[in-house]
Amino acid sequence: MQNDPELNGKYLGTISQDFVQVSDLLKEASYQMRQRKIADYPIFPISKTTIPIGQLLLERETTGRAWNYNISLLEEFLQRNLVEPNKVDEFKAAYKDPDEFCCLFVVDADFTNFVFIPYPED
């Protein structure tokens, strides 16, 4: 479970462009989930279409973004078999510091993977 090199060319531009504009909201949502003991591993599924993973946080059509942003947690990924039970320790080991990195789950026609993107520095 790593950042896929394929991401660099095709997706990094549009994800980064969107992410800079929504990063404060995602960082706060991640912080609140962890502080309230809702989730130790917040995950933000993003897609250009509607997906049934997590709850919609930002809709691309109404916000003028390229991506929809949902909010989810590791437990849902286990229930949906998106993370296999025998891979939980591997996922947790790969999960980066949530105060510094956002865990995105990018879902698109040609690419589906976890991506850890650093929050912009103030």
- Whole-number radius of gyration? 13 Å
What is the share of helical residues?
A: 25-40%
Element-by-element helix/strand order: HHEEHEHHEE
Read across the widest sheet, the strand sequence of neighbours is 2-3-1-4-5
> What is the count of helical runs?
5
Distance between the termini: 28 Å
Indicate the structural class: alpha+beta
Proportion of residues in extended strands: 15-25%
Largest β-sheet summary: 5 strands, mixed
Count of discrete domains: 1
Shape: globular
What does this structure look like?
- The chain has 122 residues and is an alpha+beta fold.
- The chain is built from five helices and five strands, in the order H-H-E-E-H-E-H-H-E-E.
- It has a five-stranded mixed beta sheet.
- A hairpin with a 4-residue loop joins strand 4 and strand 5 (112-118).
